[in-house]
Amino acid sequence: MKRTLNIDTLKKIGEDVILKGWVNSIRTHGKITFIDLRDETGITQIVLKEKLDLKPEYILEILGEVKERPDNMKNAEIITGSIEIKAKNIKVLSKAKTMPFPIDNDGYEINEKHRLEYRYIDLKRERLKKNLQKRFETIFLMRKILKEKGFTEIETPILTKSTPEGARDFVVPSRNFKGLFYALPQSPQQYKQLLISAGFEKYFQIARCLRDEDPRGDRQPEFTQLDLEMAFPESEKDIMDLIEEIYIKVVKELFKEKHITEIPFPKMTYKEALQKYGTDKPDLRKNKEDKNELAFWFITDFPMFEWKEEYKKWGAMHHPFTLPQEKNIEEIKKNPKNILAHQFDLVLNGFEIGGGSLRTHDVLMLKTCFEVMNHSEKETKEQFKHYFDAFEYGIPPHGGIASGLDRFFAVVFNENSIREVIAFPKTGDNKDLMLKAPDKISKEQLKELGLK
RNA sequence: GGACCCGUGGCGAAAUUGGUUAUCGUACCUCCCUGUCACGGAGGGGGCUGCCGGUUCGAGUCCGGUCGGGUCCGCCA
Length: 452
Prior knowledge:
Low-confidence stretches: none
Mean pLDDT: 94
Distance between the termini: 59 Å
Strand order of the largest sheet: 6-9-10-19-18-17-14-12
Structural class: alpha+beta
C-alpha cells in the first residue's frame, strides 16, 4: 500500500491507510493513547489501545483505518480534525533523542546560538518552515514572470577574480597555481554585462553573492539577489517599471494580506531624500504601526562619485560601470562631486532592497570614470582588460538591477533579521555554528595549496 | 577596528542594598487515568550560576580579564 499524506486522509474515510511522519505530541490516558502525527501537510490524530515506547519526534509508519470522529470530538484547530486514525500497526522508522529546545513555539525567545548550532532542529519550527516555503514560492513566481517576459536565467561563475573596487572579497587559493587566488563573486555584475554584449538581451539570475564584511541584522556574508540586466532600455524607467511590476505581482499573488502604500511606486531624488529624511533609504510608510503596509519607493539621481576619505580619492557611489548623467568628459573630470548618475535604489519600509542603473557602454566614458577614481590606465587595463575588450568588440546600451531578496523576505514575513528567512545563516562574525566553519584544514591540504 | 547589551538545571525565566540549602515554568524519568487534542493527577532526577583571577568574614550579585552570543558605528563598488 502506498503512503497517504495527512491532508489526504479526509478523502479516505472507512479505508485503511499508511501514514508516515513525526510524532508531534503524545497524550496517554491509561488504556487509550493519542498521537499527533505530523507531516508536511499537517497533523493527524492517531488512536491506539496498546502501550508503545514512543517519544516526541520519533518517526513512524502507521497502518490504520480512517474514521470520522463523533461530532463532539471534532477539533476545528487542526486540518484533519474531523477524522482520526485507528492504528492497527505502528513501525518506528527512526527514534529521536529529546530535542535540545522547544520547537512548538516561534522560537524568538531562545538564544540564537542554540538555534544556529542545531539549525536542523530549529527548522522543524512552523514559522521557519513557512518562511522557507514562501521564499521558494516567491522565487518560483519571479522566475515565471521573467520567463514570460522573455528573460533567460543564466548561471555565472562562483570561482572568479578579485577586483579592486567594492567590498572585501572572499578568496580561494588555487592548487594548480600556487600563490594565486580566485575570489568569490560580490555580484555577477561584470558577467551579466558581458552576456549582454554576447546578445542575451534579457538576462536574469537568482544569484548568490558573497562579501567578506561584518554582518548586521539585515546583512549576511552570503546572500541572494534577483539580478537582472537588459539591452536597449530607453531610460532607467524601463528597469524601474520592470522591477515594480515583479514586486506588485508577487505581493498581489502571494502576500494578499499586505497592501502597497502607493502604486506606481513613487520616486524621490537622492538629494531630496537626504534633505527631507536625512537618509537615502527613508521609511515612508503612512502608518508605521501597520504590519501589512509596504512602502516601496524609488530613490533616483544618485551621485556618480563619492569621496573616500580613507583612501583620499574618489570612488564610485554604486559601481564604476554606472552611466553618468553628464555627457561632457571634461566636466566629469573637473567636477566629479557634481556629477549625477542614471542610478536608483529601490527602498522598502526603510530597507534598501535593490540598486539599479544604466551602464556606460561607451569606452571613452568608461575610461574617464576609472580615471576620476584614480586608477592608472595600466592598472585599469590589467584588472578590466576583458571588460574594455568586450566593449571594443561592441556592446549595446544596457542597464539592470540587483535586488536583495533576503531583505525583501524579512520585511514581508515581518521578521527583524534576515537570519529568519535563510535556512542556514551565519552569526555576527560570519561563523557557521552548526558546521563550525570556518575551520582549520589539514597540513596536507595546506601543502597542496602552497600555503605552508 | 570601535561602542554597548547579555551569559543561572536541556530550554525560558527569578533570586531586596553582597548574606544560610539558588527558586519557578517547561522539558525529561516513574506511576495512575478509555476521549484527549498545550489532556489531567501524584512523585522523582537534574546546577561548581560560561571560564580564570581579584575584592570581601561571605560573590549568581561588585571589579578585571577571557570565551561565547546579540545590537549599533566603521565597513557593505
